[in-house]
Specification:
This protein is mostly helical and 236 residues long. It has one domain.
């Protein structure tokens, strides 16, 4: 009888333990599910803000590309007129393209979300491996591209711009009056110095647009990829 009671007690105790373990496992499962749900909601909110940020960045980048291409086209027009003959050159056209060649732009995208991710080491919140890797590489891609823009702006401001101020009626919009002043010795247009300044500007613009390095295309492709992947995750 004692053995029978002990056997029943052991079975009861084992059953209680099993029930307790099952209860703990269920509680852990519910807790994990709830934590995953909270993390997923945080991720979707983050991705929504990221998507909005990079769509705006793309608009700004398209503007930068437009200004660089317009300046490059005008530099190419002026180069096509070398060597310039001041007796036959069309000064209105030359003034217009001199105006456009001066255009410079620096792409300064909003980086609120990417900086927040980087500073707080929160990339793990993003479950998509491809998107996470793309975001991690974004800062290096952007920096490599911006170096070309910064160099071009510095070169223009330190060389061609002072030269223009010395020999032309300097301004951004009055291109028809660039060469229309009795104090100007218009023969500067025929000099090798002027030609070299324009060719230097042309070279810098080509570097920005990535004819050799492909950095502008890489920036654009990265922006498009982040927009695409963030939208896919939001819609899931």
């Amino acid at each position: 009888m004692e053995q029978n009671k002990t056997s029943k007690y052991l079975k009861y105790a084992i059953g209680e333990i099993v029930l307790v373990v099952i209860g703990i496992l269920i509680a852990l499962s519910i807790n994990n599910w709830n934590e995953n749900r909270i993390a997923r909601n945080k991720e979707k909110l983050l991705l929504k803000e990221l998507n909005t940020e990079f769509k705006q960045n793309k608009i700004e980048f398209d503007s930068a590309r437009y200004y660089h291409k317009r300046a490059l086209n005008s530099a190419e027009y002026i180069i096509s007129k070398f060597p310039i003959d001041v007796k036959t050159i069309n000064f209105d056209s030359l003034g217009l393209h001199s105006h456009y060649m001066r255009w410079y732009y620096t792409f300064n995208p909003s980086e609120g979300i990417t900086n927040a991710l980087s500073s707080s080491s929160s990339y793990d919140l993003i479950s998509n491996n491809d998107l996470r890797k793309t975001l991690i590489s974004w800062n290096d891609i952007l920096k490599d591209y911006q170096e070309e823009e910064i160099l071009a702006v510095s070169n223009y401001k330190n060389h061609l711009k002072p030269y223009e101020k010395k020999h032309m009626v300097f301004g951004w919009n009055n291109y028809k009056d660039f060469f229309n002043d009795q104090r100007i010795d218009i023969r500067f247009l025929e000099t090798l110095e002027f030609e070299n300044y324009v060719r230097d500007r042309h070279f810098d613009l080509k570097e920005i647009l990535g004819s050799e390095t492909g950095e502008m295309d890489l920036v654009l492709n990265t922006i498009n990829r982040i927009i695409e992947l963030s939208e896919t995750e939001i819609d899931d």
